[in-house]
Amino acid sequence: MSPNHIAKMIFVIGYACYGLPSGAQGQVTLLAHSTGVGQWVAYYAEPIKEEDLKPFMGRYLLAGKWPQGVIRPDDPKLLLDRAKLGATRVVAISVEAGGRLVRLTTDPVVSPEVHQLTIGKMTLAVAFWGLAVKVGAEDQGSRLVMPMMMDRKRLADHAAIDPSLKELQSSWIRPGQTLSMQGWLRLAAGEHKLKILSGREFTVDINGAVTASGFVGGRHFATLDVESAGMEIDLKLEFPATMKVISGTDVLEVSKPARPGSAASGQVLLESNLSVPWTPEAAPEATLAVTPPPYELKGGNALKGRAVFYSEAAKCASCHAVGGEGGKIGPDLTGLRGADRSLVFQHINAPSDRIHPGYPSFSVALKGGQVSMGVVRLLDKTSLEIVDTDAKVLKVGVSDVEELRPSTSSVMPSGLAGTLGESAMRDLIEFLTVSPK
Predict the structure, then answer these.
(1) Four-point Cα dihedral 317, 321, 326, 331, nearest 10
(2) Which of 66-70, 85-89, 138-142, 153-157 shows the lowest mean pLDDT across its residues?
(3) pLDDT-based confidence at 413, cuts 50/70/90?
(4) pLDDT value at residue 116
(5) What is the pLDDT of residues 2-18, one digit of tens each?
(6) Which of 228, 230, 239 is nearest to 206 (CA)?
(7) End-to-end C-alpha distance for the chain, whole angstroms
(8) What domains are defined for the chain?
(9) Pick from 20, 48, 159, 218: most CB atoms within 10 A?
(10) Cα–Cα distance measured from residue 232 to residue 187, given in angstroms and rounded to the nearest whole number
């Protein structure tokens, strides 16, 4: 499945099971797997109380190493940071099955990294690990999500508390219809040998090369030579319809066999090596090269700069606030006093060179054919709003979205320095970086 399918808003089910960490003095980590854009589900060995999760409502789960003291993506210090960062806001939380099943709704994510936040003794984390499972023919059936390692007992345990998993359980253990799995395989750059084991026969397609499984020692297997460029590799597994009960304890295992002559037994791939096909693509590390400004930035007039900030020509206040005045579409700029003027100039003139992690842009295609680009926020489980480049707000239903794709362009227009001119830019930067707010 290509990134074009990233936001078909298909409801699927994820799987994660984590018991209370031993010796952790009550510290709890709840890891949720993605079941679609902005949708996550987690299972836990012990009941989770909904009130323990309420502090996470409206807060941001963060990915990457954030600057010391920065816990919110609207902190203006992030405009000057060069790290690769991601953030997503928790919109809704529900607890089911006596506290053992947790569903989350968040804003769309642009980074494939694990996003997490710790409040007290609770850590909430979300990840895109797993495989998308299709049960039945292409035009029917349902879609589910299965992490890489799932034995029959764990699957049965969670099917008992989540009716949506019963279809996968019955189809996998005693199927009467075709099962297919799709995902992205992530390996370090170089050549790799992989071995896939299953209790059922299968075919595997890696980047278009199809291999049928063999059968040895009661297990079906396929051994593959894979060359990776360090980016995502398309992986598809197809299991033909059969009524044969699966044998063995593991439903599926992907491993790197030991080298010939080695005493090692091989290595099962980590769950994080497989990600669901709507995962945002891995972006290269941020390398913000600061281009010297074409003119001197010091010596501006802060009062004139304030007028520029609120002017129709600049339209800064349509999206940004300073001292509590202005818009809330983009980050608050109140804390830029003392900031490097060259960095501020570059962010104003070339905002797409480094998009703020708390305000990513998306291209949104609706089922009626309309396409918009802007900052996307989920309002609740069923509706979202898109704030476009003109600061106009469009509210739509989640079910109306045909495709949602992260954009490499900022909502903020480029080339503002040329529009305003040297004198006005100097005044604006003086207002943002020097004058008391």
Answers:
(1) 70
(2) 138-142
(3) confident
(4) 95
(5) 333 322 222 222 333 33
(6) 228
(7) 49
(8) 3-128 (no CATH), 132-275 (2.60.120), 302-355+412-433 (1.10.760)
(9) 48
(10) 8
